[in-house]
Amino acid sequence: MLDNHARIMQFFSMAKEVTGRKKLQKMIYILQQCHVPFEEKYNYHFYGPYSEELTLRIEELCNLGFLQENKEEKSSYYQYHYQITPEGEQFLRQFSLNMPDYSDKVEKLQEKSSRFLELVATLLYFDHLSRDEVFQKIQALKPSQNYSEEEMEEAVAFIRELKGA
Amino acid sequence: MSYETEQLSEVKVFKDPVHRYVHVKDRLIWDLIATPEFQRLRRIKQLGTTNLTFHGAEHSRFNHSLGVYEIVRRIIENFADEPNWNKEERLLCLSAALLHDLGHGPFSHSFEKVFKLDHEHFTQQIILGDTKVHEVLERVRPGFSQDVADVIGKTYKDKLVVSLISSQIDADRMDYLLRDAYYTGVSYGQFDMERILRVMRPMEDQVVIKSTGMHAVEDYIMSRYQMYWQVYFHPVTRSAEVILTKILHRAKELYEQGYAFQLEPIHFLSFFKGKVRLDEYIKLDESVVHYYFQLWQEEKDVILRDLCERFMNRRLFKYVEFNPGTEMHVYLELHDLFKKAGLDPSYYLVIDSSSDLPYDFYRPGEERERLPIHLLMPNGELKELSRQSDIVESISGKKRTDHKLYYPKDLIEKVTDLPIKRKIKELLNIQGDGNHVR
């Protein structure tokens, strides 16, 4: 009964506002990897884990008036901002979701840049590889992002903190 | 001569209704086609339940995989003299194109949803595991199978290679649009693929389209848009998909309750338990699934029996348009009434959303969100397609989502409590055949 929609709405009721589709994609993926039961299917897509299902679900929630999407024009692309609406809050009240409390994780993720979350999400995507293999993989797949050793270490520490939170 | 460069004594051709001929010259490709894991794709339909709406849609993942291979073969032929193209990647691209759907199971969308599976994971497993496909790939050189798996998983270092198999204008999409249009018999999936192949240019990390080919790409985007609404999102197909999903849910639920099936569903046990081994996954094809559905029509459990009988005999659920924004209270009221009428709402009252379907529209997206289609302008600059094309721009921002409420009209007609029956019919606006806009 639209439980997956409700789970995303619950996330927005915690996050209040999310700036950037990329940031949103990575936040949900990272939370999923921290065992928050979002069911959107992710694959690797050029810039890291990406879910087409999530994109479409967000579009649905906007069309239903549950989320407010604002589009901001940047030099060569658009950036999108998302916020829950009163209708969305009302929709959410009809569900009793069995979800863990992950508000502290959302708060931590909100503080980080989308560039950093891209790195964190990619590290999590390759967590079956050894630490050296993952670092090599990231250098090979994301040469333009030019992540430094320090950033990677910071991302590893962040994952540890998040999973322990 | 090494296995990598070994050619067949003559070019083998497969007659194909979409591309006329599929040409095979490499020994490797010929051997891959002959593996049991690839031959299995003959027994998995490309469009799952769509044949219950468009009876011609009986084509398999086997046809499609050969088609994708043929498109990539032609693209590579065109790239031969391009400076950005690395000729050494040829065999890797062809293998990845041929094998990209290897992990699809029967009705994979429903199976994935119910049993929390991922066909891409199984594609990787078949390529890297103890299989004939793996053995053939490793004959090229140790580690070749890993490279093929990385291309398909989009984690290969050369992004140009990846984008041939998987991007917003890739061989996979071009083949399935043309093939699905051909087999369903609809006329709106057509576009000039030959023209698109001629204007594709390899860049450092992606395939781009020469700007003079923009109109051919517009046609491709429009056909994608039309096919989604007319074929992939077809409400009758979705009804069949809803019933199929509910059968799997019911069978799993019964298994968990210790229900005694008349014949132990051995092929499903690992799916019910949530631990599916590769060899078990490979064994399950559509013939096996149909066999069980046939048997389950004789089961004592009324719901499983009814759902299987519906699926096998195309006695599908009816539907109404549903707006979760304004009509959730209607759904909740119906939920209650269905229970009172003895109809289990978790099986017989189903909201289906377009986001539950595995298809995507063209979206330019945000920077570094996903790779859009880029046009190569005469001055060498790259421009995102929807910024140049009014047609693409006009459909990029349109509403493309939809929700429906599915229910069994025939069972509602049999409800004996007349006030409840009247109320349900009133809420679903049932007058004639069903399928209404409220």
From TrEMBL, chain A:
Instruction: Name the domain of life this protein comes from.
Output: Bacteria
The name this protein goes by in its record? YwgA family protein
Biological source species? Compostibacillus humi
From TrEMBL, chain B:
Q: Which residues form the signal peptide?
A: none
* Gene Ontology process terms (BP): dGTP catabolic process
Q: Which PROSITE patterns match?
A: HD (PS51831)
Q: Which residues form a coiled coil?
A: none
- CDD domains given for it? HDc
Q: Which residues form the HD domain?
A: 61-177
- An example Gene Ontology molecular-function term: dGTPase activity
Q: Which InterPro entries match?
A: dGTPase-like, HD/PDEase_dom, HD_assoc_2, HD_domain
What PANTHER family is this protein classified in?
DEOXYNUCLEOSIDE TRIPHOSPHATE TRIPHOSPHOHYDROLASE, DEOXYNUCLEOSIDE TRIPHOSPHATE TRIPHOSPHOHYDROLASE SAMHD1
Which protein, by its recorded name, is this? HD domain-containing protein
Q: Which organism is it from?
A: Compostibacillus humi
